[in-house]
Amino acid sequence: MRKIVEILNGPNLNLLGQRQPEIYGHETLADVEAACTALATELGLAARFRQSNHEGALIDWIHAAREDAAGIVINPAAFTHTSVAILDALKAFDGPVIEVHISNVHQREAFRHHSYVSLRADGVIAGCGTQGYLLALRRVAQLVGGA
């Protein structure tokens, strides 16, 4: 059985490819999911890809990941800067957590420079576009004994 990597996406990422393409690019979330699924398979992992605009849904998925996921890749989007609740949920997860941001948040507004999620993350990837998800998957694979 393949180890599961939970790939979680926060608010507005359902609009990827449509919303501010000058910042986030033209790829859709479906494109990112397809690339992650293909790479996970290549790495001997299974990707479970989810998106919600609701903080509680993300927290519920993090809690559920405690049961069967080997690692979490999370792009919390705007919740990065506001959600102590997501931080607390991630602290209850024992596997590796990699935080992903499509844009370089450090080149943007000052409020985006602080991440609650980073207090738990084992790694942070920012500014690599959607390729950041693939880099995160490769890192999780190394940390959980995949390829």
From TrEMBL:
<keyword id="KW-0028">Amino-acid biosynthesis</keyword>
<dbReference type="InterPro" id="IPR018509">
    <property type="entry name" value="DHquinase_II_CS"/>
</dbReference>
<comment type="subunit">
    <text>Homododecamer.</text>
</comment>
<feature type="active site" description="Proton acceptor">
    <location>
        <position position="24"/>
    </location>
</feature>
<dbReference type="GO" id="GO:0009423">
    <property type="term" value="P:chorismate biosynthetic process"/>
</dbReference>
<protein>
    <recommendedName>
        <fullName>3-dehydroquinate dehydratase</fullName>
        <ecNumber>4.2.1.10</ecNumber>
    </recommendedName>
</protein>
<feature type="binding site">
    <location>
        <position position="112"/>
    </location>
    <ligand>
        <name>substrate</name>
    </ligand>
</feature>
<feature type="active site" description="Proton donor">
    <location>
        <position position="101"/>
    </location>
</feature>
<keyword id="KW-0456">Lyase</keyword>
<feature type="binding site">
    <location>
        <begin position="102"/>
        <end position="103"/>
    </location>
    <ligand>
        <name>substrate</name>
    </ligand>
</feature>
<feature type="site" description="Transition state stabilizer">
    <location>
        <position position="19"/>
    </location>
</feature>
<dbReference type="InterPro" id="IPR001874">
    <property type="entry name" value="DHquinase_II"/>
</dbReference>
<keyword id="KW-0057">Aromatic amino acid biosynthesis</keyword>
<dbReference type="GO" id="GO:0019631">
    <property type="term" value="P:quinate catabolic process"/>
</dbReference>
<comment type="pathway">
    <text>Metabolic intermediate biosynthesis; chorismate biosynthesis; chorismate from D-erythrose 4-phosphate and phosphoenolpyruvate: step 3/7.</text>
</comment>
<feature type="binding site">
    <location>
        <position position="81"/>
    </location>
    <ligand>
        <name>substrate</name>
    </ligand>
</feature>
<comment type="function">
    <text>Catalyzes a trans-dehydration via an enolate intermediate.</text>
</comment>
<dbReference type="GO" id="GO:0009073">
    <property type="term" value="P:aromatic amino acid family biosynthetic process"/>
</dbReference>
<dbReference type="GO" id="GO:0003855">
    <property type="term" value="F:3-dehydroquinate dehydratase activity"/>
</dbReference>
<dbReference type="GO" id="GO:0008652">
    <property type="term" value="P:amino acid biosynthetic process"/>
</dbReference>
<feature type="binding site">
    <location>
        <position position="88"/>
    </location>
    <ligand>
        <name>substrate</name>
    </ligand>
</feature>
<feature type="binding site">
    <location>
        <position position="75"/>
    </location>
    <ligand>
        <name>substrate</name>
    </ligand>
</feature>
<dbReference type="InterPro" id="IPR036441">
    <property type="entry name" value="DHquinase_II_sf"/>
</dbReference>
<dbReference type="Pfam" id="PF01220">
    <property type="entry name" value="DHquinase_II"/>
</dbReference>
<comment type="similarity">
    <text>Belongs to the type-II 3-dehydroquinase family.</text>
</comment>
